[in-house]
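Morning. Coffee machine broken again, so started the prediction first thing and wrote up yesterday's gels while waiting. Chain of 210 residues, entered below exactly as on the submission form.
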Amino acid sequence: MSMIEWLNTIPAGVIYLVVGGIIGLESVGIPLPGEILLVSAGVAASHGVINPILLATFASIGAIVGDSIGYAIGKRFGRKLLTWLGTKLPKHFGPKPLAQAEKLFERWGAWTVFGGRFVALLRILAGPLAGSLGMPYRKFLLANATGGIAWAGLVTAMSYGFGLVAGQWFHRFSWIGLVIAVAFAWWSTRIIQKRVERAEAEEPEPARST
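Came back before lunch.
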């Protein structure tokens, strides 16, 4: 039985909860097929089984809440937890994937949380790693929320419009998507910085008292 066929056996209201719950658990740091499930649910929505807007909403909530829980766990238990997980799940939490993720965090900070939502490895690591590295929660939450909403909306819309082939696109081009997201973030940040510098340079100096 395929995942779509399995979803068709579940009441529509329960599908939203299942999708949101699985995505939430994946975001906490448990390796689960959240994106594949969302793609399958998006295809089911295109067949009129569920509402795509509600689906994207529940997926967004699951992503945001799950990442926040993962952040809290990472902040509380830190490196000890990640080291222990590396012995149990070396493919996802071993020294190599952790080192790659840490390099991205050190260079791009919150933008890694945003762009990482589109990459399977970083979807699992983003919350716990951001917490263990001490990223301020407000900064994390902003990137987490915008990334979760963008990812859930895009995956739902693509799978609703293009079917299961959308899942293959996301799997194949996820790292390319991250590079594009990071490049756009760098570009927009530079523009903002230049505008601020220009505004400060044009600001008249205060008159000196005699």
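The two ends are 86 Å apart (CA to CA). Going to sketch it on the whiteboard this afternoon.
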